[in-house]
Design goal:
Shape: globular
Radius of gyration: 28 Å
Largest sheet: none
Number of helices: 14
Structural class: mainly alpha
Order of helices and strands: HHHHHHHHHHHHHH
């Protein structure tokens, strides 16, 4: 038999008032929701009523970290044993493909198939975008290193001669490189990983809107720009003219690093694809395009190549003319302030013009 707890006489008026207020609020909410368009109702229900704590994405993040970490660990082992860096870029970009595919299958495709629901468009688009970029860039870089036989960026991590043993310092340096590459893959994959982690009801409730359409267009533009830049440079370097010369034709006449401009753009596009959902509790995934942009602008991309180009071609008047008239990154922005030459050379050039 059920037990009824008696309410003290002093609290009965308060309980009656709360009961009436609850019924009135419920009726008002029902009437208000009935007036909303069904699409807005679905979006509101998904984003404001569904319990989506930030830590709910942890299983998907853990899967992404495991996949990326395992592949890079295997890459490190093979590289150390074979003393060859030819697989480095293929493994690094391939980890993006594997992470996107694994999280999409585990948290989107399998639940949708089990429930007999249609596959949401947004996670499918973002997964295909990340996987397509990783596959194209990885195969391109692998083909390039197989043709050239070496990569000057990575040679410093290995013993100078094949017969030299590994020193603890060089081995630690190589391990550090693979660790950084793992972090790069995990961080840049965040928008795709988080979108793939969300429940199907959230995915289906938020339609593909104008922001996601613009993001898709930005991704495609960046992807095509990077692919065209790589193709043109590869073809130029394979010709007799480009053996010991820089490229300044095609998209390389618009700016000095169109491939990097394309890569930055496409990751901002991927983030924009997911922004209608990510803007709620997962706006922090913007660290993905910010990390890519910062890395290429200030760390391992443009600064290193500017220094390398200055050493190789800096004394060539034709190259200096190209560098002085061509923007570093953004086309049609006029001559760059930083032309990539040491300050001493720039001062000497300015003094020569004054004389």
């Amino acid at each position: 038999p059920s037990m009824r707890i008696p309410i003290p006489p002093l609290l009965r008026p308060l309980g009656l008032a709360l009961s009436r207020r609850t019924r009135a609020t419920s009726a008002l909410a029902t009437a208000s929701l009935a007036l909303l368009p069904s699409r807005n109702l679905a979006s509101s229900a998904a984003l404001s009523l569904a319990p989506l704590p930030v830590f709910s994405v942890l299983p998907c993040l853990a899967l992404s970290a495991t996949v990326i970490g395992a592949l890079n660990l295997a890459g490190f082992a093979v590289t150390a044993l074979s003393r060859s860096h030819k697989l480095t870029d293929l493994v690094g970009t391939g980890a993006f493909v594997a992470s996107a595919a694994a999280t999409f299958y585990r948290f989107v495709l399998r639940p949708a198939t089990t429930a007999g629901s249609p596959i949401p468009l947004r996670p499918a688009l973002m997964t295909v975008a990340a996987a397509t970029w990783g596959a194209r860039l990885g195969l391109y870089l692998f083909d390039r290193v197989m043709k050239t036989g070496h990569d000057s960026r990575l040679a410093r991590f290995f013993p100078e001669r094949p017969e030299d043993p590994w020193t603890p310092q060089r081995l630690a340096s190589l391990a550090g490189f693979w660790t950084v590459q793992s972090i790069w893959g995990f961080v840049v994959s965040l928008p795709v990983t988080v979108i793939n982690s969300l429940p199907l009801v959230v995915q289906s409730a938020v339609p593909i809107g104008p922001v996601a359409v613009v993001g898709t267009a930005v991704f495609l533009s960046g992807f095509v720009l990077e692919a065209v830049a790589d193709f043109q440079k590869n073809r130029f370097k394979a010709s007799p003219e480009g053996k010991d010369k820089w490229i300044e034709s095609g998209v390389w006449s618009l700016c000095r690093f169109p491939n990097y401009l394309g890569e930055m753009s496409l990751w901002w596009g991927v983030y924009a694809m997911g922004f209608p959902i990510l803007q709620t509790k997962y706006v922090w995934t913007a660290v993905s395009p910010l990390f890519t942009t910062g890395l290429l602008l200030y760390v391992s991309g443009i600064p290193l190549l500017l220094e390398e180009h200055a050493k190789r071609y800096g004394k060539n008047p034709e190259f200096r003319a190209y560098a002085e008239r061509t923007p570093i990154l953004l086309p049609w922005t006029g001559p760059p302030k930083n032309k990539g030459f040491p300050k001493q050379d720039a001062n000497k050039s300015a003094e020569g013009k004054e004389k």
